[in-house]
Amino acid sequence: METKKDSTEEKILEAAKNVFVTKGMDGARMQEIADEAGINKALLHYYFRSKERLFEAIFGEIIKYAFPKISRIIASDMGIVNKIEQFVDAYLDVLMKHPFIPGFIMKELSRDPSTFLKMIMKFGFNPQIVFTQIEEAMNRGEIIRMDPRHLAVNVISMCVFPFAARPIVSFVIFKEDQPAIEKFYHERATVIKQFVVNAIVIKP
Amino acid sequence: METKKDSTEEKILEAAKNVFVTKGMDGARMQEIADEAGINKALLHYYFRSKERLFEAIFGEIIKYAFPKISRIIASDMGIVNKIEQFVDAYLDVLMKHPFIPGFIMKELSRDPSTFLKMIMKFGFNPQIVFTQIEEAMNRGEIIRMDPRHLAVNVISMCVFPFAARPIVSFVIFKEDQPAIEKFYHERATVIKQFVVNAIVIKP
DNA sequence: GTATGATTTAACCATTCAGTTAAACTATCA
DNA sequence: TGATAGTTTAACTGAATGGTTAAATCATAC
Predict the structure, then answer these.
(1) Predicted ipTM?
(2) Which of A161, B52, B137, B185 is the most exposed place for a label (fewest CB within 10 A)?
(3) Domain A67-200, second-level architecture
(4) How far is the CA of A124 from the C1' of D9 (A)?
(5) pLDDT tens profile B174-190
């Protein structure tokens, strides 16, 4: 019984993810989720008692992706430039696989900040570690002087924002030319790394 | 007779903006808007017949801010580096005055992309102009070679994203230390300009 | 074959919410 | 004074929606 994972439950989770991600908690309709999962409302409630519970299931799942084992990269003891490059690669990799995450998080963030920030705390990464490391590199003259917090925000912005604003980017720049869009997003990692290195690394 | 602007209507618009901006179209409640405006639901419908109409009024207003007279800067014939710097200054200025805009747009974008993209079209700025100018500067060896579209996305990302993700930034980095947050956001323009110049300008 | 759990059907309940209505009240203007 | 626009109060309608329920059906295992 249920050798892999219960197929219906997975269908529900998949459908719920799609609907919640595009419509948000408020906009999502249980009926729509049921339809998309190819079942009926009764069965949907049979699996997940309430909309609230279903949402939390999805939400937790997504957060796990959003703040991934990148902590490990951050905590590692490699050089800062190397570390930034690995961070960008790892983060872009996650985003390419789950491009809807930024949009979803932005939406739910203002709706209910408290539960969200609680979630973040659980992953409790300490940015101070990176900030200190950046400052040391500056003192050694490896990279230019700048507020480490601004540097971090710059890097993360360039990684995340294009996914949050994907519809605008794809419409304004690419007129919905799908293959070109795909290509563009695949190039992001390389471009960002190059851009950051150019901006901060001091050549001897 | 309404010498300035009808005070009640303005109270409504102000209240509606606040509610729509934090809750989104779906999450917003007419009752809440009425309460926040210090009036009752009946009067609210007396001024704006429906939630739709009220939302559209707010939406149009906000879009006007979001895509401001920056077009003029883009179309001007100053040098590209200068132009980027002026763009960043102007854009950050708008964002500092209306910091809620990015979050709002992100939310409503996935809910109803069509009406939104229609709005954008109206402002019909042609990014191709800037792209061409960037390429010319590259050919003259003023700035390094890179896909102009990536450059544009990088700059805009660094400008906009911190506002869209403001709650996270202020929580993770600043632990809600308001004055520090304010200071940080005021520094953004200078930091971004410096960062971009470092990244792309070729020193002779 | 029968028991059990999964699934459907379809009706239903309770609540929330946008929007309406009518009546009364207030202030202002003419 | 009386007309008029703005405003309140309070009750209501109607639709959408989350959630429940009971009975019927289907599949599978025992």
Answers:
(1) 0.88
(2) B52
(3) Orthogonal Bundle (1.10)
(4) 52
(5) 888 999 999 999 999 99
